[in-house]
Design brief:
The structure holds two protein chains of two kinds. Chain A is mostly helical. Helix content of chain A is 78%, strand content 0%. Chain A contains twelve helices and no strands. In chain A, helix 4 runs antiparallel to helix 5. The radius of gyration of chain A is 19 Å and the shape is globular. By secondary structure, chain B is an all-alpha fold. The longest helix of chain B has 23 residues. Chain B is extended, with a radius of gyration of 20 Å. Classes of the chains: A mainly alpha, B mainly alpha. Chains A and B meet through helix 2, helix 3, helix 4, helix 5 and helix 6 of A and helix 1, helix 2, helix 3, helix 4 and helix 5 of B.
Chain lengths: 245, 102
């Protein structure tokens, strides 16, 4: 019944206070992650300032490709005057992991209205994915989940635009009290460890992924991360299948 | 090619990757096997990203300070399950390491 009712109710017709509360809760859940990606956003902006790409197109990577790794790659290739095929191929490869996130959320989101799924997809990146899957683990009302996710995703998006702009304006003068790699590793661990605590399968997936990431980091264009992630998924799936349930 | 056209295309490719499954699945249900596997995607990918960030194979080589900060962060994350606390304690550890001479 829930699928039919969800589509009928749609997002907009829910009681206003409830939806606002859920969106605010999502924004609060995102706040520490936004703080964590701030040094990274500054670095992306400062890097953009150093390339030959003009100011506005450089900043526009924040709302077109939206994602640190893909933005850095795009800026580098645009700066080198790379062709359209190389640029799009590279962006696709670097962002392939986002397709895996989309695939893992698609089932949970299938009863949401089309516009919501479009906006939600646009906002999908590591921190928003982590907040979404965390929230789905706890279950609850799908309508509340949609506003919660939008609150989190929009908070991150707006913050990212501001932070990369500051990095662009500051350029080399952006000081690094907290280096981007330190903040990144801590943010990833803050998302990962509680997830891995939850079940033996999740811990195995995380451990195999981590080991693979260490070993395959030398592969070009982030393909090592993909190989490692796939390894973690396969290991956890095999372990689950072999166990009598 | 015009830089704005290139950016629009790159953005479109990113959106298709992010939203392809989400929009295509529609109101059909996924096979249970796919749903089971999808639960492993987030720990595996986040683990892989941590591994890649710490890897000695990567461009800058092994960073012992980063490794120490990561271990501190992992312990705090395990005990507290809080991203904020993980950041706070981890960054403090990083600043303390910077302050140590040599």
């Amino acid at each position: 019944m829930s699928a039919v009712v969800d589509v009928g109710v749609a997002v907009g017709r829910a009681p206003r206070t409830a939806t606002r509360g859920a969106a605010l809760a999502g924004a609060r859940a995102m706040a520490p992650l936004l703080v964590a990606v701030t040094p990274l956003g500054l670095v992306v902006g400062a890097t953009a300032a150093e390339t030959s790409v003009a100011f506005l197109p450089a900043w526009a990577t924040s709302w077109t490709v939206y994602g640190a790794t893909a933005q850095l790659v795009t800026l580098r290739l645009l700066g080198q005057g790379a062709g359209v095929a190389l640029l799009l191929g590279t962006v696709a490869l670097v962002n392939l992991r986002l397709a895996a996130y989309g695939a893992s959320l698609a089932g949970h989101w299938r009863s949401a209205p089309r516009w919501w799924r479009l906006v939600a997809s646009y906002l999908l990146v590591e921190p928003s994915y982590a907040v979404a899957s965390e929230d789905l683990e706890t279950g609850g009302d799908p309508l509340r989940h949609r506003w919660y996710y939008l609150g989190a995703g929009v908070t991150l998006w707006v913050g990212w635009q501001v932070v990369t702009l500051v990095g662009l304006l500051g350029g080399e003068r952006v000081t690094h009290v907290v280096p981007a790699d330190v903040a990144l590793v801590l943010a990833l661990l803050g998302m990962l460890v509680p997830m891995a605590r939850r079940s033996g399968d999740a811990a195995l997936a995380a451990a195999v992924g981590l080991l693979g990431g260490l070993v395959f980091a030398g592969l070009p264009l982030g393909t090592g991360t993909l190989v490692a992630g796939a390894g973690g998924v396969v290991a956890a799936s095999v372990a689950k299948r072999r166990r009598p349930s | 090619m015009n830089v704005w056209l290139l950016l629009a295309l790159a953005g479109l490719v990113s959106l298709v990757l992010r939203g392809g499954f989400v929009l295509l699945v529609g109101d059909r249900s996924l096979p249970p096997s796919v749903e089971r596997i999808s639960a492993h995607v987030s720990p595996a990918m986040l683990g892989a990203l941590v591994g890649a960030a710490l890897s000695p194979v990567a461009a800058e080589g092994l960073d012992p300070g980063l490794l120490v900060v990561a271990v501190v962060g992992a312990v705090v994350a395990f005990a507290s399950r809080s991203v904020s606390l993980t950041l706070l304690v981890g960054i403090t550890a990083h600043l303390l390491l910077q302050a140590v001479p040599g």
